[in-house]
Amino acid sequence: MEYVRLGATGLEVSRICLGMMSFGEPDRGMTPWSLPEDEARPLIRKALEAGVTFLDTANVYSAGSSEEITGRAIREFTTRDDVVLATKVHGRMRPGPNGGGLSRVAVLRELEASLRRLQVDHVDLYQIHRWDPATPIEETLEALDSAVRSGKVRYLGASSMWAWQFAKALHLAGERGWHRFVSMQDHYNLLNREEEREMLPLCADQGIGVIPWSPLARGRLTRDWDETTHRSENDAFGGRLYDEASDRAIVERVTEVARERGVPRARVALAWLLAKPVVTAPIVGVTRAAHLDDAVAAVDLRLTDEEVTRLEEPYRPHAVVGF
Known about the structure:
Distance between the termini: 31 Å
């Protein structure tokens, strides 16, 4: 495993981030394909033993169950200081007023709830899961700053939004003397490269670490185009992300390169992403040991310029999705 700094910070993270959305009780929340704790634990342990130290979860994953499983795994399989623990806030956690969003009430209350579920006294990276148009960004930023100053959060991150929104947030935080976002968790992979237009150049300019979600396009890049899985058949959100006719050609190019290299397709798709200078660590979800093996092996796979060109050539502009 390799380790790099998260953007311009001094925080060291593994080049692969383990996405904890794959782990959670299937009957809680909106991910019936997630693995219950008894199936999740061996995979989490294997990841930690392979040197993966960066774990990303969220309060909404399996209605809090993912955070609970993550916290218990950290206590049993490693030590708190040996992992970089990230979680997120924004999604609705309860019905009625103030049950979600990024108001000061929601940010600070959900932080406390996440800490209880994780059974830790702080998180290393606290991220806003999406932009909240109903709350002034100044209110959100001030609440996040107070969370850092309280010692319960070490760094702040953001996830999918328009580049102008992220630029505004970075500017306001600097202007007011608040802690700024240090990372961007955005939708970026071979099938959707729209972030290359504005968000990624902004992150490079501002020293922001990029930790893409869905780096394998919900598995689309790892299997034949018409093949389905239990997750793809039950993932309503993922079903809206990849249905462009041009995407099939890209999947076929990944298959060609993987066959020539004699490696699984997942390694090629991840190696392409890891070669992008602005990318710190893709967030990889795993439900089988082989998924983890491929993610770790991808760190050492170096694609040639010709292979990169072949993989990228079929791409056509897409509508922005995932916000």
